Amino acid sequence: METRKVKETKDGADVKRFRERLKDKKKIVVKIGSSSLQHSETGDLDYTKLDVLVRELCDMRNRGKDVVLVTSGAIAVGKKAVNIKDIKHEEEDNPIAVKQACAAVGQARLMMTYQKIFAEYNQVAAQILMTKNTIVDNLNRYNAHNTFSELFKLGVIPIVNENDTVATYEIEIGDNDTLSAIVAALVDADLLILLSDIDGLYTDDPRQNKNAQFIEVVEELTDELMDMGKASTGSSVGTGGMNTKLIAAKIATSSNIDMIIANSKDIKVLHRILDGKNIGTLFVGNKETYFDLPEFVANMHNN
Ligand SMILES: Nc1ncnc2c1ncn2[C@@H]1O[C@H](COP(=O)(O)OP(=O)(O)O)[C@@H](O)[C@H]1O
Ligand SMILES: N[C@@H](CCC(=O)OP(=O)(O)O)C(=O)O
């Protein structure tokens, strides 16, 4: 049984009020990682999970919300399709090209699967592939923003991933936790939900430290909290571990967007979160900060 650690609110008020306001969120970005989409034993797609994910997203649309899905999985699905088990950097002449080739195969397959399931719920979905330049270049950013706005007006759910085949993978945005927060800031979302292979943020990696305590709410991302993720690596399938989730939290909360990390083992948590239930770790958006998105993305890997 996990020990829950509830951070006191600044004014001592009940943390429940932060959960209550989740009921009113209108524009929601949901991110799912590769490890959550696959069966861990075989690496094949978990269709049951994908089905529940799509159903939850369509139901959010039916509740009148604007919804974006940021999905990983292109490389993992591509690797499976061309029968590559491991991309070992020391054994490949050009490991990045191998990953990019896998992404080219896998992205199309992944979208095919999503399109099929979204169609079952009579929901139109779109694909948006982004690179660092989509945000840094003013005209690109303006066009991307307008495209999202039009898709929302049309009731379409945009499905986003990094354009791994043209991005220099690992030195551009590189992970979808960060990408999802960037997307949330770009579209002026009011909630970002990261579905992970863990319940939320702990005081330390609970897989390494049995005494790690669960943190229910983070009202202020202190340096101490940011350091909590730095040593982490995450699963063998996932890219960023907790570090990239905390970077995402920094981007989101500085843009006044609430963010939640929740466990993807039961994707039905999505509607429960929107019902104000106490699930996952909630990072509270900060109204007082100004966040310069293009500036941040331009300097991302220099920080
Ligand atoms: N402080 C922490 N709190 C929670 N999980 C942590 C922490 N530090 C490291 N981790 C690890 O990060 C993992 C989640 O990252 P990752 O595997 O990249 O997830 P995903 O593929 O879902 O994005 C957890 O399974 C956990 O082992
Ligand atoms: N863009 C890559 C995923 C990168 C990524 O961040 O993966 P993950 O840590 O599983 O969310 C892909 O689609 O394979």
Question: How would you describe what is shown here?
Answer:
The structure is a single chain. Helices cover about 40% and strands about 15% of the residues. It is an alpha/beta fold and about 300 residues long. It has one domain (about 5-300): Carbamate kinase. Helix 9 packs antiparallel against helix 10. The chain is globular and about 55 Å long. The ligand N[C@@H](CCC(=O)OP(=O)(O)O)C(=O)O binds near residues 72, 162 and 239. This is Glutamate 5-kinase. Pathway: Amino-acid biosynthesis; L-proline biosynthesis; L-glutamate 5-semialdehyde from L-glutamate: step 1/2. Belongs to the glutamate 5-kinase family.
Secondary structure elements and their pairing?
Elements: E1 4-5, H1 16-20, E2 27-32, H2 34-37, H3 47-62, E3 66-71, H4 74-81, H5 95-120, E4 125-130, H6 132-136, H7 138-153, E5 157-162, H8 176-186, E6 191-196, E7 214-215, E8 217-218, H9 223-230, H10 241-254, E9 258-263, H11 269-274, E10 281-283, H12 293-298
Parallel strand pairs: 1-7, 2-3, 2-6, 3-5, 4-5, 6-9, 8-10
Antiparallel strand pairs: 9-10
The site of adenosine-5'-diphosphate has 22 residues, from helix 2, helix 9 and helix 10.
Pathway: Amino-acid biosynthesis; L-proline biosynthesis; L-glutamate 5-semialdehyde from L-glutamate: step 1/2
InterPro entries: AceGlu_kinase-like_sf, Asp/Glu/Uridylate_kinase, G5K_ProB, Glu/AcGlu_kinase, Glu_5kinase, Glu_5kinase/COase_Synthase, Glutamate_5-kinase_CS
Protein name: Glutamate 5-kinase
